[in-house]
UniProtKB/TrEMBL annotation:
<dbReference type="Pfam" id="PF09107">
    <property type="entry name" value="WHD_3rd_SelB"/>
</dbReference>
<dbReference type="InterPro" id="IPR036390">
    <property type="entry name" value="WH_DNA-bd_sf"/>
</dbReference>
<keyword id="KW-0547">Nucleotide-binding</keyword>
<dbReference type="InterPro" id="IPR009001">
    <property type="entry name" value="Transl_elong_EF1A/Init_IF2_C"/>
</dbReference>
<keyword id="KW-0963">Cytoplasm</keyword>
<comment type="function">
    <text>Translation factor necessary for the incorporation of selenocysteine into proteins. It probably replaces EF-Tu for the insertion of selenocysteine directed by the UGA codon. SelB binds GTP and GDP.</text>
</comment>
<dbReference type="Pfam" id="PF25461">
    <property type="entry name" value="Beta-barrel_SelB"/>
</dbReference>
<dbReference type="InterPro" id="IPR004535">
    <property type="entry name" value="Transl_elong_SelB"/>
</dbReference>
<keyword id="KW-0648">Protein biosynthesis</keyword>
<dbReference type="InterPro" id="IPR057335">
    <property type="entry name" value="Beta-barrel_SelB"/>
</dbReference>
<dbReference type="InterPro" id="IPR015191">
    <property type="entry name" value="SelB_WHD4"/>
</dbReference>
<dbReference type="InterPro" id="IPR050055">
    <property type="entry name" value="EF-Tu_GTPase"/>
</dbReference>
<dbReference type="Pfam" id="PF03144">
    <property type="entry name" value="GTP_EFTU_D2"/>
</dbReference>
<dbReference type="Pfam" id="PF00009">
    <property type="entry name" value="GTP_EFTU"/>
</dbReference>
<protein>
    <recommendedName>
        <fullName>Selenocysteine-specific elongation factor</fullName>
    </recommendedName>
</protein>
<dbReference type="InterPro" id="IPR036388">
    <property type="entry name" value="WH-like_DNA-bd_sf"/>
</dbReference>
<dbReference type="InterPro" id="IPR027417">
    <property type="entry name" value="P-loop_NTPase"/>
</dbReference>
Length: 628
């Protein structure tokens, strides 16, 4: 598959970046009138450098003036290789150093040093400049970079530099074209008769003409009407390409640099990001807890505050700092994205790093939080998916994308490991180890319930679920429970859950007294006393009475007439059969009293019980047998 790269020209103002770009590409990237007049680059300039059947390379000319650092950050954030431009007649200058800091913090790993304007100085002076540069590059990403001597006017060394760039990129890994499309916007303009056009470097994925897209974080749906790559129409654009997209339905005023054009809603919109931060050497000012900062991420430039969890200030720090950035506006980002922090006033680059977790929360101050962030920082895609599921227990595919910041293809590959991950309910994912843990916990809870409630058929399903809801989501608990019932680990009796071998029973030490109580109730026939009197006579404690009554009802030993009177089930059954045989399809209370020889205190509750059981239906002053 063809690969696409964007390289950047970085360095101090007036060191010849734009001239070098023109010499390499034959394109003048200073297009603004102001840039022509002032002879400095204000906006990002782009030009095609090289293309064959295997590779396409574009150049971004980054502004060098200190005032235009934000444009520089926006441009360099999407590049694959940097040409650091240093003029032979001046050597390393302040913006050279600042660009070096920013390039390192943005994770640029491939660089070439181009010493320009070599025709202006003596050869001996070039050696001194080279030594100066080498000293400055120690400890940076350019420390072992190749040096090229060039002059943009005479074209000395231009072909050699171009060949070096091409050969370097041919063996370099390209950006990921498999996942969802993402293009951080760095330019917005209108073309008469065409409407709004956005431009940027495709970070990842690909886009096709006519494709439906979203402008984030605003959440505006649009369509890619037309695509251009270096002013030439294109049907599609890929990661690493500099692309202009004519979008429909959005006015120029409704979109801005820093917005992101995406093909999927899976990208996270956030104001709180957990980060790994490194600060630049020789900071002029102390960085204090919750100090206002300006965060550059992608092409966005957003005010915010820096939050430390293990300190209240810093100045000189060689190690990475795990901390948090709380922004005033929403940004679109994912794990692994690079950022730069700058002090708004007095202006100074503080440092930069990468996003550990784009969905940060409020944490407590202390080393425990830093340790948790360290765990999140480490991990393979599989480990990140496991960590996300272990923390939240159950997630949809989209939610997993959001939490892990993996691309769709990568996550699908991870989730195919059936021995680790479980797809259930057609949309949710969890860990097999978690389902085993939940089943074991349910088993223990049900067993404990049986030990404390020997007479009950089991624990109410809703009660069991409620007991575990603080730790596990409801849909996962219900899945594990139903699966346990299917595999006969658990049994179910109406709404009650029990262990498969459990049978409800009266405690052994109360068995004889209960049998005596039941015999007394049976002996009294239909004209019984209050049920509580039978328990008192049998010497059964009041605290056991409710459970024994429930047990005897579940076992069909007794039938309640109301809260006070209960009949032995044999007498109840006989009373129903006798009344049914000696009445017609309907009867009145008086008819029933004659048949059963009962007073109203028994008769009325008995007849209401028949209604409740669905054996009869009351119609005015009569009752109708339902099955006669």
């Amino acid at each position: 598959m063809k690969r696409y790269f964007t390289i950047g020209m970085a360095g101090h103002i007036d060191h010849g970046k734009t001239s070098l770009t023109k010499a390499l590409t034959n394109v003048d990237t200073d297009r603004l009138k102001e840039e022509k007049e002032r002879q400095i680059s204000i906006e990002l300039g782009f030009a095609p450098l090289y293309e064959d059947a295997e590779i396409q390379i574009s150049v971004v000319d980054v502004p060098g003036h200190e005032r235009f650092i934000r444009q520089m950050i926006a441009g360099v954030a999407g590049i694959d290789l940097v040409v650091l431009v240093v003029a032979a007649d001046e050597g390393v200058m302040p913006q050279t150093r600042e660009h070096l800091h920013i390039l390192g913090l943005l994770g640029i790993r491939n660089g070439i040093v181009a010493i320009t304007k070599v025709d202006r100085v003596e050869e001996e002076f070039i050696d001194l400049v080279k030594e100066d540069i080498l000293e400055e590059l120690k400890g940076t990403v350019f420390e072992n970079s190749s040096f090229m001597l060039v002059d943009s006017l005479s074209l000395k060394g231009i072909d050699d530099l171009k060949n070096l760039i091409i050969n370097t990129l041919k063996v370099q890994e390209t950006r990921d074209v498999r996942g969802a499309f993402r293009l951080p916007i760095d330019q917005v303009f209108t073309i008469k008769g065409q409407g709004t056009v956005v431009r940027g470097t495709v970070y990842e994925g690909s886009v096709e003409e006519g494709q439906t897209l979203m402008v984030m974080p605003k959440g505006i749906e649009t369509r890619a009407r037309q695509l251009q790559v270096h002013h030439l129409p294109a049907k599609s654009a890929y990661a690493g390409q500099r692309t202009a997209i004519n979008i429909s339905g959005i006015a120029k005023e409704d979109i801005q640099r820093g917005d992101v054009l995406v093909s999927s809603e899976h990208f996270i919109v956030t104001r709180t990001i957990d980060v790994s931060l490194r600060v630049v050497e020789d900071l002029d000012y102390i960085v204090k807890q919750r100090m206002p900062i300006k965060c550059h991420i992608g092409t966005a430039e957003v005010m915010g505050r820096i939050v430390f969890f293990d300190r209240n200030e810093l100045k000189d720090e060689d190690n990475e700092i795990l901390c948090q950035i709380r922004l005033e506006e929403e940004v679109v980002t994912k794990r692994g994205d690079r950022f730069i922090l700058r002090r708004p006033s007095p202006i100074e680059t503080i440092g930069g790093g990468w996003v550990i977790n784009p969905s940060g929360e409020k944490y407590r101050f202390g080393h425990q939080t830093v340790e948790e962030l360290a765990k999140k920082k480490e991990g393979t895609p599989k480990e990140r998916a496991i960590a996300a599921l272990f923390e939240v227990k159950s997630l949809t595919f989209i939610e997993l994308l959001t939490r892990t910041s993996l691309d769709e293809t990568e996550l699908k590959g991870v989730l195919n490991e059936d021995s680790v991950f479980l797809h259930y309910n057609a949309k949710e994912y969890t860990l097999l180890s978690l389902t085993a843990l939940i089943e074991e916990e349910m088993y223990d809870r049900i067993k404990d319930f049986h030990n404390e409630n020997e007479m009950r058929p089991g624990i109410n399903k809703a009660e069991l679920i409620q007991m575990m809801l603080k730790v596990y989501p409801k849909q996962l608990l219900e899945f594990v429970l139903e699966n346990g019932i299917e595999t006969t680990v658990f049994g179910k009796r109406e709404q009650y859950i029990h262990l498969k071998d459990f049978t409800p029973h009266i405690p052994v030490n109360w068995q004889k007294r209960m049998e005596g109580m039941l015999a007394d109730l049976k002996r009294d026939g239909l004209k019984v006393k209050y049920l509580s009197d039978y328990f008192t006579k049998a010497g059964i404690p009041n605290q056991l009475v409710p459970d024994i009554i429930r047990f005897l009802e579940d076992e069909k030993e007794i039938v309640p007439l109301d809260d006070q009177y209960f009949w032995h089930s044999e007498h109840f059954r006989h009373a129903v059969e006798r009344l049914k045989s000696e009445t017609g399809t309907e009867f009145e209370v008086g008819d029933a009293k004659v048949v059963l020889d009962l007073s109203r205190k028994y008769m009325i509750p008995f007849l209401e019980r028949l209604d409740a059981l669905g054996l009869t239906r009351r119609v005015d002053n009569k009752r109708v047998w339902k099955d006669k």
